[in-house]
DNA sequence: CCCATTTTGTTGCTGAGTGCAACAGTTTGA
DNA sequence: TCAAACTGTTGCACTCAGCAACAAAATGGG
């Protein structure tokens, strides 16, 4: 194995692959982590516009168009309109989208627990805390 | 921000993006994490064959062909031959490949320290330990 | 009040990356 | 001995992301 296992970047990548597998088991096929992220961001920030979503997700605006398109095809969001700026078409969460979030989030958390069962509860909490701190998501 | 920051998978992804940026700054353009992983695996396991590398990296054999191709174009590896099985062409680390590893690894570790400077040394060590345990790379 | 500049969303193009299917050469095992 | 399995390889198709360019709309300095 060599020096590979010492690298933080490598271990993060492996961990992410593991949790992606967990995500795939928890969520119906066709839904990507990026799409769920969009839904959660819209739910937490009503009226948020595509450009802002693109900046937060760190993708191009044209990429965000396509991501929102797929969410719209699934009827999880629809493109609304702003009264103050007719350029923006802020994605709005639909009933279906809200129901999807409510249905899938508990399953995702359950699968995360399952896939990280090698860690004790306190270890898992500490791992989350350290990652949040690393990502500047301080409490 | 909402429930997103609570998800371990999301935090792992964010952390991996951060460390990927660190890697990009530490390594000359054109070298990907996958390529370095291959070099390190070959260095630690002389004679390892492409199929095994593909299994470890969890990619298709045809994908591994192309990854090794790029390492060969850079003269970091050359395709050897096995005396016991004429089918296998195990990639062999060249002088250049060895020199590259020796030159780049310290820089990578230095950049990792820089990019994770928000963590204390003990926190960083604990994060590494937890990730290694999660990835079943127990000491 | 104008008109140049900026912003927003969008589309087309391109390049990178991956898996799958198929293949020839080689080895294995019943 | 010969069918099956394995190794490396190539071609094809598909996905994904960024860049450039665009029209419509908003903004701001003269």
Short description:
The structure is a homodimer of 139-residue chains. The first copy, chain A, is 63% helix and 4% strand.
Give a written overview of the molecule:
With 139 residues, the first copy, chain A, is mainly alpha-helical. The first copy, chain A, has one domain: Winged helix-like DNA-binding domain superfamily/Winged helix DNA-binding domain (Arc Repressor Mutant, subunit A). In chain A, 63% of the residues lie in helices and 4% in strands. Chain A has helices at residues 8-26, 33-44, 50-57, 61-73, 95-115, 121-134; strands at residues 77-79, 91-93. Chain A has a two-stranded antiparallel ribbon. In chain A, helix 1 (8-26) packs across helix 5, helix 2 (33-44) packs across helix 4 and helix 3 (50-57) crosses helix 4. The termini of chain A are far apart. At the A-B interface, helix 1, helix 2, helix 5 and helix 6 of A face helix 1, helix 2, helix 5 and helix 6 of B. The first copy, chain A, binds a DNA duplex (30 and 30 nucleotides) through helix 4.
Oligomer class: homodimer
Distance between the ends of chain A: 36 Å
Look at the structure and give the CATH class of chain A: Mainly Alpha
Q: What integer value in Å does the Rg of chain A equal?
A: 17 Å
Total beta strands of chain A: 2
Portion in strands of chain A: under 5%
Structural class of chain A: mainly alpha
Order of strands in the sheet with the most strands of chain A? 1-2
Q: H/E order of the elements of chain A?
A: HHHHEEHH
Largest interface: A-B, 50 and 50 residues
Number of helices of chain A: 6
